[in-house]
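One thing: mind reviewing this one?
=====
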Amino acid sequence: MRILIVEDEPTLAKQLSAAVTAAGYVVDHAGNGMDARFMGDTEPYDAVVLDLGLPQLDGLTVLKQWRAAGRRMPVLILTARGNWHEKVAGIDAGADDYLAKPFHMEELLARLRALIRRSGGHATSELVCGPLLLDTRSSRVSVAGEPLGLTSHEYRVLAYLMHHPGEIVTRAELTEHIYAQDFERDSNTVEVFIGRLRKKLPSGLIETVRGLGYRLNEKAS
């Protein structure tokens, strides 16, 4: 899952990026509103953390322009504590949630997980497909109750598939969601990660839909 963090304060931006990356997500960062608007318009993010007080173009304007252009990714806005006007304006502009500064990083991560979960129609933090369970809180995976060791890229591929149960996910789509913007992407490596996952997961759990992509099979055992 790929997250855009829009924050102009360098220290906070670095802390946010480190925490979100450690939680198992791929992170891109924008330090001003103009870059944020462009990145949100051109890259397929699973969620955005958006500060409202940005240089060049304020966060509220960025959000309004995204929504006007049909960008539907979940957005968590960061506001100044006690400034209820910003909270109301942000929600009215299309934000899905807000968090007042200063905040605890654990709360931000919990709210981020909830936004991504709700956007995929999931009711809890545990994603289940047949015998497979992925806990988005701990980034841990198990099969029939037994822990499963995965590399970071294997986890990202599996997490994206499990956030989109029953859907056909193309190789290009997976590539866009498991790598950051500045990473040298190679869609062929997705096949490698899929192959590794198949060796670790129950037979038939990850289906290849010829000419289209991959899909999780909930009936696999």
Notes: The CA atoms of residues 198 and 206 lie 7 Å apart. The two ends are 26 Å apart (CA to CA). The longest strand covers residues 75-80.
